[in-house]
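sorry to bug you again but im stuck and you know this stuff better than me. below you get a single protein, a line of residues and a line of whole numbers that encode the local backbone shape. mainly i need to know what kind of three dimensional shape the backbone takes. anything you notice is useful, everything is just below:

***
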Amino acid sequence: MIYCLTGKIVKKTLDSVVLSCAGVGYQLQVPQTTAGRLPAAGETATLYTVLNVSENDIALYGFATEEQQSCFKLLTAVSGVGPKAGLAILSVMNPEQVALAASAGDHKAFTRASGVGPKLAQRIALELKDKVGKGLAAGESFAVGDAPAPAADSAPAQAVAALVALGYNASDAARAVTRVDDTLPVQDIIKIALRGLSKL
């Protein structure tokens, strides 16, 4: 298994990157969010990878962070979500937005991704709800399986953890937080989310 690659960027487009590592050029398909974060051709970069082997193809997918890599693995473990849909979702949402939408049961958020219809979006939200809701409630960032990542320091994740500590369940807390501007300070997100929760 190739966990990550570090090398010189030979070529990059909106959805792929060619990375030269020890004289070998690896072509990786990437979400648009990753392509946008990478330096220009000729610069050195590290991409966290997922190797996908199917009947007709062997493809390597690259991500800017380990959280994106974990999120992609979790998304593609959902029945009906292939690598193409996983990349499309990560092109319009970051891992935290995926976690918040899933734990809030907000399937409409996933339909913003190209090729993800309402039925598939509902399946994603349903299958991921429990997996990511527990992590958010514990104040953990996106992780796969039983290996939690370090505590997230983002305002939305802190707000969800605070609301859970106040006695709200993780799904309601995440749903309330997703309706608030995530660029606000944590205290403001909590205040606005509490107003929304008081109306339930």
About this structure: Residues 143-151 have pLDDT under 50 and may be disordered. The CA atoms of residues 9 and 42 lie 5 Å apart.
